[in-house]
Amino acid sequence: MSTLRVKVARRACEADDVCSYELVAVDGATLPPFTAGAHIDVHVGGGIVRQYSLCNAPHETHRYLIGVLREPTSRGGSSAMHERIAEGMELDVSVPRNHFGLAGGTHHSVLFAGGIGITPLLAMAEHLHAQGLPFTLHYSVRSAARAAFRARLDEAPFASGVRLHLDEEGTRLDVAAALSECPPGTHLYVCGPAGYIDHVLRAARALGWGDDRLHREYFGAAPVVEEAGERAFDVRIASSGNTYAIPPGRTVVQVLAEHGIDVPVSCEQGVCGTCLTRVLEGIPEHRDLYQTEEEQAANDQFTPCCSRAKSALLVLDL
């Protein structure tokens, strides 16, 4: 995938453990355009690549703005961003990609953000406002000190449509109540921790919302726990015919990398879809949060960073 060379023009503290980074082209050129909900891959050094949503207005072509939460259990990405990446430094990033785009139409939209999940929804809010389309943004955080980009939201021209829910003040989000205020045909967009997203989607489905109006993007998967009795299986590479054994406790990506077969990865948790690989034969055991239930049921692709196999063999289109 092609990369862009950018410079950190500005770094700012947005909340406890959250920093924003304004990225501009090193040569001052216009950056490739993006749509609301898009993300970029950021190469943070040491072979670490992480995905961060763009949270500035999509019409801005002179910069990319990302927000990074320092995770207490960081696998190297967020800690490197917070500890090593300073103003003036140069980075390689990918061109923007979007797996979480807004649906077309003039319908009402309701946006649900949990914690750092606010970042793609900020870009959505900016776009919807610029297009004169109706929306409401619900933003849930534990405390005011953890509410990233709050000043920006308070000063935004769409501030009247923002609802801030603070656990410490007892204003926790009531999803059912929020959805009851939405007109027919509203589309729902939710981003944040897996538990938050699942809670919002369950509430919507319980009220009869169809999956065609539910859109989500996970920012982190639950910790992977090795299941008792996890079985070994084989993976065959279609282009070469070579077969490799995947033992319990090892991922397909790890084993293939040891044999010189590079599968692009980013989150390594089945969240981002970067490593999504076509399955030609066999039945995957899906452990990702990226695909919908319908896509998983098709069994024609899987995420080798975390998923395994129900069958003894998977033949991959590599």
From TrEMBL:
Q: Which GO terms describe its molecular function?
A: 2 iron, 2 sulfur cluster binding; metal ion binding; methyltransferase activity; vanillate monooxygenase activity
Report the EC number(s), separated by commas if there are several. 1.14.13.82
Question: Which positions fall inside the 2Fe-2S ferredoxin-type domain?
Answer: 233-318
Q: Which cofactor does it need?
A: FMN
Cross-referenced InterPro entries:
2Fe-2S_ferredoxin-like_sf, 2Fe-2S_ferredoxin-type, 2Fe2S_fd_BS, Beta-grasp_dom_sf, DmmA-like_N, FAD-bd_FR_type, FNR_nucleotide-bd, MRET
Which keywords, in A-to-Z order, does the entry hold?
Answer: 2Fe-2S, Flavoprotein, FMN, Iron, Iron-sulfur, Metal-binding, Methyltransferase, Oxidoreductase, Transferase
Query: Per the database record, which ranges form the FAD-binding FR-type domain?
Result: 1-103
Q: Which GO terms describe its biological process?
A: methylation
Tell me the PANTHER family matching this sequence.
CARNITINE MONOOXYGENASE REDUCTASE SUBUNIT, NADH OXIDOREDUCTASE HCR
Protein name per Swiss-Prot or TrEMBL:
Oxidoreductase
